Amino acid sequence: MKHFALILLILFAFACKQDAKINMLETGTYRALLKVNNTEDLPFNFEVVSENKLNIFNAEEVIEVDDITYKNDSVYIKMPVFEGYLVAKIENNKLTGSFVKAGLNRVMVFSAEKNANRFNTSEKAKHDVSGHWETVFSPDSEEDTYIAKGIFSQKGNVVTGTFRTTTGDYRYLEGVLDGEELKLSTFDGAHAFLFIATVTDSSMVGTFFSGNHFQEPFIAKRNDTYELPDAHSLTFLKEGYDKVEFSFPDENKTMVSLKDAPFKDKVVLVQIMGTWCPNCLDESKFYSEFYKNNKNKDIEIIALAFEYVKTKESAFNNIRRLKNKTGITYPVLLAQYGSSSKVKAQEKLPMLNHVLSYPTTIFIDKKGAVRKIHTGFNGPATGDKYVAFKEAFEVFVNELLSE
């Protein structure tokens, strides 16, 4: 904590030189690097459109960033929705500084310069990783091991895709196969993920880095018929419970519960989420659009936010920011702040066997009965799986509405 505070103090002092020249971002495509450890950097690309706007690229994803400010000799690039920001000094079209997530006391060394390449390659790809991969993370740990499904597409050296887990996907990954070395990364202001693996025609052995604070091994084998467990079988009501009950405040400090009049005789979706969670953001965008298109029907959505920021005020500020950025018009209640612990979340919702994932959605029919609980979210990075999810979602919701 003292180390983190010292870094922020140095950054602040560095940015507050009163006589420093103010340099602006120049238009063009940049290659950014986040320092993962002494030997590995996490690259991503962004394009500066103007002094106050840039786009970050992860495969098909384009993240528009328009909260850019300048102070003395530094630029502050605030990511949309998430609390993370980049602060850097600009000299000769090069940026040097940090990626900061203050709520988690995390700082990564950041640099960028004009370059269109995400990863550099030295040789042609020796294999084609296109297809599906049965994956295990932390395979030698009884406590931390979990399964996933790798879904990849390759053209020449370039590889895109994602890993799906039982709790959500790792969103848009982009990288290369350099000879037999697979390198994939993504950066969205919340996630800073890097995957490096040695590949054969049928296997992968590698390491997953999350920022500069966590890493774990993974193994994978090619298996185009592999499927993860049913997302509706993982979370359920405990014996002795027949409904979901809660009462949490909205941003106006009004306590909201399922007993309130707006939810009576309605189909209700209860979304367990956090404003810091990229999979939750993907789901919130989908729900927001669905809610707007179906406001004339007997359906309501309530989001329960579990926030890691230290104060209630900060948590509500993040909720307002999420709603403004995504156009959410349904209630987002503050269920917890100071921790995003799933164990503590389950204590707030004792009728559930556990809270396994942010996000999780509880489907409640017009009589108040829980009909289904969906763990995780297959976002747009999962391609066909996302399309299938949307179709199945609408079919099931329409069934509940017709009852």
Describe the structure in your own words.
The chain is α+β, with helices and mostly antiparallel strands and 403 residues long. Helices cover 18% and strands 41% of the residues. The chain has a 9-stranded antiparallel sheet, covered by helices on one side. Strands 10-11-12-14-15-16-17-18 form an 8-stranded antiparallel β-barrel. The chain has a 5-stranded mixed sheet with strand order 23-22-21-24-25. A hairpin with a 2-residue loop joins strand 5 and strand 6. The protein is globular and about 60 Å long. The termini are far apart.
Do you know the CATH topology of the largest domain?
Glutaredoxin
Total of domains: 3
Structural class: alpha+beta
Strand arrangement within the widest β-sheet reads 4-3-2-1-9-8-7-6-5
Question: In what range is the share of β-strand residues?
Answer: 35-45%
What's the helical proportion of residues?
Answer: 10-25%
At CATH level 2, the architecture of the largest domain is 3-Layer(aba) Sandwich
Instruction: State the shape.
Output: globular
Tell me the Rg in angstroms.
22 Å
Mean pLDDT: 93
Q: What is the CATH level 1 assignment of the largest domain? A: Alpha Beta
Order of helices and strands: HEEEEEEEEEEEEEEEEEEEEEHEHEHEEH
Largest sheet: 9 strands, antiparallel
Tally of helical runs: 5
- Measure the end-to-end span: 54 Å
Question: Which properties best describe this structure?
Answer:
25 strands, nine-stranded antiparallel beta sheet, Lipocalin, single chain, eight-stranded antiparallel barrel, Glutaredoxin, 403 residues, alpha+beta
